[in-house]
Amino acid sequence: VTSDVTIGASFAKQTFTVTIPEIENGTVTVKNGDTEVKSGDKVEYGTALTFEVTPNEGYELVSLTAGETAVENNSYTVTSDVTIGATFAKQTFTVTIPEIENGTVTVKNGDTVINNGDKVEYGTTLTFEVTPNEGYELVSLTAGETAVENNSYIVTSDVTIGATFAKQTFTVTIPEIENGTVTVKNGDTEVKSGDKVEYGTALTFEVTPNEGYELVSLTAGETAVENNSYTVTSDVTIGATFAKQTFTVTIPEIENGTVVVKAGEQTIANGDKVEYGTVLTFEATPADGYEFESYTIDGNSVEEATVTVYNNVTISATFKKIKEYVLWLFGENGPVEVYSDKELQHLVLADDKSEDGTEITISAKDCEDGLYIVLHNSEKLELVKLMINGSDYTNYVENNMFHIKDVKELMYVDEVGIQIGATYVDKLSSLKSIGIDVKNGDVEFYNLHGVRIPTEKVTEGYYIVRQGTKTVKILIQK
Prior knowledge:
nine-stranded mixed β-sheet; 55% strand
């Protein structure tokens, strides 16, 4: 120093370089107050730098550094050259899968199953495997408030998966059914054709065949309905088949005759079945010596030989033995003939000339209209007496015929027999024609009651004449 001297010095703030390298997956804007600091700019010592950090979509800031120092409170004070660094990473979001009723939802990220509470990165595509419980179907599948479409959802935030399942419903079809009706019910509610019912609904059926028909089959789809109930597991068509009822015709073994039963021209055998409403006719044929008495239907006597079948039916007939009468015919000097009708179409008994008479058996059936006794008055013979069971019926003969109207009234011998006797005499105009000569004497005349008549008192009429050992019955005419 050689003189007074004033020392002077000037100082200035240090400046430091701020380096901002290229940052991936986001941006960092560095500011000094309101002034943006670019990479390579210098700032004074003590400058408080602030940061505007902007992650790219789907990313988040992991770290922000100034040199080796982590930036806190979004501010850093420069004390040296400094390099700003930022690390960004994909955002992760929580997937919540609550308990779901009536089905399950499996959430996947690719092939990896996502469990409740797992995290996935932003933009992850979740897929879903939805399995309804039996009888249920998916109503809605949601991710948050969004309905899942095409079974895929892209995660952009925390998300709760939801699924709603409901009972499946199926259509019940009831086509028009012939020859009967089927009412389908769900509990007490009638189910109409086209109605829908839930899976597992137990349908019941009220089946009503038309008159004369019966149920052959009741089906639900391809399944035969059992115990009048069917559980719905899919769309179903109800079907019923009705057929004419058939009933058994019983024709028991019949004594003393036969019965032929027919349906139209078809002969029905014992045990055959016929349809409801079939009209049966029957014809009885008695065995020899028997006559038809009555038809019976299920044990009840009927008058008409026909029945309409509405149930199992037993058809029978009863026959009774034809009552027989015994006729004893006696013809003296001439024949006796007996017929069953006055037209003489049905000869019952031919003439008989035996002295002891002839015993003939005749059925009561042939005597229903009585008997006609035919007598033989002729040029040579004349009836003098007709005796029936000891009574004289001579005066009742008309036109050589006598009609026994009620055979039973004349029965005797335990009501089974009739004696018929006819006595004839030759029609003679003189005694000589029979070999008696009144000149020879010893001729006796008797009336038919056995009283002797003096010869001088003999007039016209019938007499019994005796001469020696010869006895004849004569008719004296003028």
